[in-house]
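Q: Given only this backbone (136 positions), what sequence would you predict?
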């Protein structure tokens, strides 16, 4: 199965300018090397201690398997009013940190089954990610 995922991602990467892989929380996709060697790594977490530890362990594992981190590593802190440090040894590894506040509009859209892509630019969650762009 892991070889199939790797081959499929390699084929997609040859055909598309950007490929986004949404991996579940945990270390399996990294230890099995199904995520490849991305140009950018985005870690999304919340404020829980377990989530912060998972992010730290993911970065350490990625570095040990690939001899370093990708050129860009971003952190998205979900439902967080401010940038809260994970650990002193982890924060300097991120190119950028985004603190995405709780947003009632997100909850309302989710409950209604609406796409979050329809959120207003004035939404606190959308505004918090305003500086995030995909580079060619």
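A: Predicted residues:
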């Amino acid at each position: 199965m892991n070889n199939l995922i790797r081959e499929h991602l390699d084929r997609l990467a040859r055909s598309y300018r950007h490929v986004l892989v949404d991996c579940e929380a945990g270390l399996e996709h990294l230890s099995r090397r199904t995520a490849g060697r991305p140009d950018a790594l985005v870690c999304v977490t919340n404020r829980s201690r377990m989530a912060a530890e998972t992010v730290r362990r993911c970065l350490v594992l990625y570095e040990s398997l690939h001899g370093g981190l990708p050129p860009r590593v971003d952190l998205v802190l979900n439902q967080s009013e401010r940038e809260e440090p994970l650990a002193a040894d982890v924060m300097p590894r991120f190119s950028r940190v985004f603190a995405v506040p709780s947003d009632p509009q997100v909850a309302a859209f989710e409950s209604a089954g609406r796409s979050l892509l329809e959120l207003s630019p004035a939404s606190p969650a959308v505004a918090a990610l305003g500086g995030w762009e995909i580079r060619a």
